[in-house]
Structure prediction request, 209 residues.
Amino acid sequence: MVSAISDRIVTGVMRPGEKLDEVSLAERYKVSRTPVREALSRLGAMGLVDRRPNRGAIVAIVSPAHLASMFESMAELEAICARFCAQRMTQKERRAMEIEHQAASQLVARREEAAYELFNSDFHARLYSGAHSPHIRDLALQTRSRLAPFRRAQFRLDGRLQKSWREHDRIVAAILAGDGEAACAAARDHMTIVSEASAVFAHDEGGEA
Prediction:
């Protein structure tokens, strides 16, 4: 339910400031109000929903500047992780990343968007864990959770799966070569492109999205 509602928010089906009625959402998703409340709470933690005392929940107004700032932070965190991966990943971790990355090319060829989304999430999780820096991993995971709906929305764009895989390929090649600076640059470039692709789904209304 969190994924479904967040997708509707990010793609503009649910507009900034729109009231989120628990009863209506429960009926839409054929559940009780308890999981709806839990979903709204999680969406609030992600910054997509504002919950106000005695006024219920509304779709949050996220400024383009704030979204850009989060992506900028994400780019730097992933760049650090990629550099550390090139320096610190074990041979077993490198091999596992390489195998999964090559397998993902088949998902791209078959245009299996949902399956590739799962791979994409796992790929980035491998970057965070492969850095062998628990604090940086936690920061990256926290920031990623805030951006997850926007990052997921990018795959709705034509040809984005193929481009994403090629961007990952640069990161993987640099990590396997043990080239920390190249891995760092490739990861930062990838996140900059993701930011630009995801921004297509940020709906500007009077300077706010």
Notes: The longest strand covers residues 49-52. The domain at 64-201 is CATH 1.20.120.530 (Four Helix Bundle (Hemerythrin (Met), subunit A)). DSSP finds nine helices and three strands in the chain.
